[in-house]
Design goal:
By secondary structure, this protein is of the alpha+beta class. The chain has a single domain, classed as Jelly Rolls, CATH 2.60.120.10. Helix content is 46%, strand content 26%. It has 5 helices and 10 strands; from the N terminus they run H-H-H-E-E-E-E-E-E-E-E-E-E-H-H. A 6-stranded antiparallel beta sheet has the order 1-2-3-10-5-8. A 4-stranded antiparallel beta sheet has the order 4-9-6-7, with no helix packed on it. Helix 2 packs across helix 3. The radius of gyration is 21 Å and the shape is globular. The structure holds 2-acetamido-2-deoxy-beta-D-glucopyranose (NAG). 2-acetamido-2-deoxy-beta-D-glucopyranose binds next to loops. It is found in: Endoplasmic reticulum membrane.
Length: 228
């Protein structure tokens, strides 16, 4: 028995070494990338806000035209022109108990830009994320709740709901509501939240495949175009 005990003990210490080396190597890389996150971004928070307001001024409640206006302008803007998905590949999205659909305009390791919404309303958990999330309301209203409050936060058409990295809320779209959602920070960890309901609730593997295909294609495409 003695040699077996010895070998499993040395096996464990070997694993500890591997983990220690990985942590030792990855931590500085993560730290350097974290400092430089800003330089990877192809979208600008102030520009997106301005674009949201102008698209609504021009097209009002014609949300399809609003979305086209936004995508057209991002396609001509130097910083993002090369990073836009023009195909409106709408897919269902179930996450945190809420259900809607999304059109992925852009996805990378550090950002995503989507149109997210539903024509019938939904409610759920925002998820606790490793990215800042800017939810630009294009039509309808979103409400949000944080424990300790007795009144909802209300985000009508034309407003922005900024969910800070690490924060969490309960949110609701009481009726038809569509938004331009922009997330910047670390996107890959958010995908677990984005997929959990499909794996453990809906089992809609067609949607899972479509979402993975489009997200993967956009992320890899944008990674190859980025200037590391
Ligand atoms: C858009 O729809 C909302 C809600 O139905 C309404 O209050 C608003 O006046 C409409 N805006 C325009 C420009 O028609």
């Amino acid at each position: 028995m003695a040699p077996k005990t010895k070998s499993s003990a040395s096996g464990i210490s070997c694993w500890f070494k591997v983990i220690a080396v990985l942590v030792g190597v990855l931590t500085p890389i993560w730290y350097v990338l974290e400092q430089r996150l800003e330089s990877f971004y192809v979208f600008d928070v102030d520009h997106l806000r301005d674009l949201q307001l102008r698209s609504l001024q021009v097209h009002g409640n014609d949300t399809r035209a609003v979305v086209n206006y936004i995508v057209d302008e991002l396609s001509t803007r130097a910083a993002s022109a090369n990073h836009i998905n023009h195909d409106e590949e709408w897919v269902f999205n179930n996450a945190g108990g809420a259900m809607g659909a999304m059109y992925i305009i852009h996805a990378s390791i550090t950002e995503y830009l989507i149109i997210f919404g539903t024509a019938v309303g939904t409610e759920g958990h925002t998820g606790r994320h490793t990215a800042d999330d800017y939810f630009h309301i294009l039509s309808g209203t979103q409400t949000a709740y944080v424990p300790g409050e007795y009144e909802p936060e209300v985000y009508p058409q034309g407003s922005v709901h900024h969910l800070r990295r690490g924060d969490v809320k309960q949110y609701k779209m009481p009726d038809s509501c569509f938004a331009l959602e922009y997330a910047r920070g670390w996107i890959p960890p958010m995908l677990f939240f984005g997929y959990a309901d499909t794996f453990f609730s809906t089992l809609d593997f067609y949607t899972l495949w479509r979402t993975s295909y489009v997200t993967g294609r956009e992320m890899i495409g944008n990674l190859l175009k980025s200037k590391f």
